[in-house]
Structures are given as C-alpha cells and as structure tokens.
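tool=predict chain=A
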Amino acid sequence: MRVGVKGGGCSGLMYDLDFDDQMKDGDKVFEDNGVKVVVDKKSLLYLLGTTLDFSGGLNGKGFQFVNPNASRTCGCGESFSI
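tool=predict ok
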C-alpha cells in the first residue's frame, strides 16, 4: 500500500492512498500486522507520527488519518494544512 500527500482539497493538502508494487528511490517502507506501507520521501515530512486507522461497520468511515502535524483539517477529513 502506498501512502502519500498531494496538493488539493479545501485545506491545501490531501492524503493519497493507493496500491502499488513498485519501489522508487527515497521510499521508506513500514510494516504493521503483515501489511507493508510505502511512503515517498517528500510525503514522509508531512506524515511523520501519523497513524492510519480503519473504521468498519454500518457507520464506518473506512481509512482515517490521524496526523499530529496537521494544524487544520476540513470537515470531511480528506484534506489538511500544516
């Protein structure tokens, strides 16, 4: 799974979550519960200390980013600013 940050959204930056099987120069790999998470070098600066939670069930939101670096987030939780 590749996690990154790109410009956009109502707060300026958006999380990008995708499946990827290619490593690029500067990528960092983290593993938790057998799942490998790849983050590019630039995005890592915005994501340090961030946790990625999953909420399921009838009222579940899916993946939720908890980013201690974000100074502001939008109401839907899809974008943030630092």
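The CA atoms of residues 64 and 77 lie 8 Å apart. The first helix runs from residue 41 to 47.
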